[in-house]
Write a structure and sequence with these properties.
31% of the residues lie in helices and 27% in strands. By secondary structure, it is α/β, with parallel strands linked by helices. It folds into 2 domains: 222 residues, 3-Layer(aba) Sandwich (Rossmann fold); 93 residues, ANL, C-terminal domain (GMP Synthetase, Chain A, domain 3, 2-Layer Sandwich). The chain has a 9-stranded mixed sheet with strand order 4-3-5-6-7-8-9-14-13. The chain starts with a helix and ends with a strand. It binds zinc ion. The site of zinc ion (ZN) has 7 residues, from loops.
Length: 411
């Protein structure tokens, strides 16, 4: 999926703005003596932007237009150090809303739907993004935000919400509550728009079956507008990405080079029309791949696979590189196990050890199962973890993102 002529000319507009604003990227371009790209090769020679660059620009160093044009800021989480602040112009907010509206449309959601929005409002891009798209579509927004499960379920029943917007963790929590309370027949949900974290096929199946809904994966990140830059269509063959607003590349995280379509790597995004804080070749650290070929829906928007993890998720244990997805794949092969698991890594007596807690889907011989799972993990990653099979519902449920890997070595 090469950058096309139109996209190149849009990148050149962004380059001019960045140089004029003299922010970190503008300076980088000047140092490299670049003020224009005219070929694919020249584009691919442009420097990357990193999250660290964005943090260093705190608070408003990313602003690429006059301050009076900025109508809003959003901020991404600062789990380590300073947060990132992204300024938006009125056009940026409008473009984002258009993209989000398109997401709802691709999911077959219409202005007759009632959209129950549980992601958080505020500095986050989540809740307000779902809201903007909903209002542009003309559907009824039910702006719940997270938490207060009693009230969520009451409103869901009384208002007959038809679409649930949530993280996969919260969708699972709600599905389990609905089952526990036996109120499934009072719930009118038909579709779920689920975003912002990696989730396995098993968790997807559980949410879809327990709520009896079709699920759509929505993609996005605060640095690039927020959620809503892509979604799967009803054929469920990957997420279509809105390449009239963004250009997306997949690179090998080690070499920084583009990989052929179909191969896994790290997503890198260039905004094509953003005004408040344009980004060129931003490394997202999300792992995915371009899906080659055409989608049966006929749309020519390119597709990427569901996010399989993050390049910085990699755990180094006993000298071996391990990704949470590898463990998840082993667990998914056991029908006796449910979707929820937690990995804890600690350092005891001079040695790394990995403990895996995983919920059973029903009652079975936990001890025998533990041994089988430990052996299966060993054959995949090369060393034997300690496995604890626990009862369904034992692990914590989250209203936001579930923390699946806890590294206790550096605490
Ligand atoms: Zn499609």
């Amino acid at each position: 999926m090469q950058i096309n002529e139109k996209q190149l000319s849009q990148v050149n507009n962004q380059i001019q703005r960045l140089i004029a604003a003299d922010n970190f990227y503008g300076k980088r371009l000047k140092e490299a003596g670049i003020d224009h790209v005219s070929t694919v090769e020249e584009f691919l020679a442009l420097p990357f932007s990193e999250k660290e660059d964005l943090r260093d620009a705190y608070p408003l160093g990313l602003m690429t237009c006059k301050e009076e044009e900025i109508v809003r800021i959003h901020s991404s989480s600062g789990t380590t150090g300073k947060p990132v602040i992204i300024p938006y112009t009125a056009k940026d907010v409008d473009d984002w809303g258009e993209m989000f509206k398109r997401c709802y449309e691709f999911a077959g959601i219409t202005n007759k739907d009632r959209i129950h929005i549980t992601p958080g409002y505020g500095l986050w891009t989540a809740g307000i993004g779902f809201q903007n798209g909903c209002e542009k579509l003309g559907a009824m927004a039910i702006p719940m935000g997270p938490g207060n499960t009693d009230k969520q379920l009451q409103m869901m029943m009384d208002l007959k919400s038809t679409v649930l917007c949530a993280t996969s963790s919260y969708a699972l929590l709600l599905a389990e509550e609905i089952e526990k309370r036996g109120i499934g027949d009072k719930i009118c949900l038909k579709k779920g728009v689920i975003g912002s974290e990696r989730w396995g096929e098993k968790m997807r199946q559980r949410i879809s079956t327990e709520l009896g809904i079709e699920l759509y994966d929505i993609y996005g990140l605060t640095e690039i507008y927020g959620p809503g830059i892509g979604i799967n269509c009803k054929y469920d063959t990957g997420m279509h990405i809105w390449d009239d607003y963004l250009y997306l590349e997949i690179i090998d995280p080690a070499t920084g080079r583009n990989v052929p379509d179909g191969e896994w790597g790290e997503i890198v995004i260039t905004t094509l029309v953003k005004e408040g804080a344009p980004l060129i070749r931003f490394r997202t650290h999300d792992l995915s791949r371009i899906i080659p070929g055409e989608c049966p829906c006929g749309s020519s928007y390119p597709r990427i696979d569901v996010i399989s993890g993050r390049s910085d998720d990699m755990m180094k244990i006993k000298g071996v590189n391990v990704f949470p997805k590898q463990i998840e794949e082993v667990l998914a092969a056991f029908p006796e196990l449910s979707s929820e698991y937690q990995i804890r890594i600690s350092h005891l007596d001079g040695k790394d050890s990995m403990r895996i807690y995983v919920e059973a889907s029903g009652s079975s011989d936990f001890k025998a199962l533990q041994q089988k799972v430990a052996a299966a993990v060993k054959s995949k990653i090369g060393f034997t973890p300690i496995v604890y099979v626990v009862e369904l519902g034992f692990l914590p449920r989250s209203e936001k993102k579930s923390k699946r890997v806890i590294d206790e070595r550096f605490q």
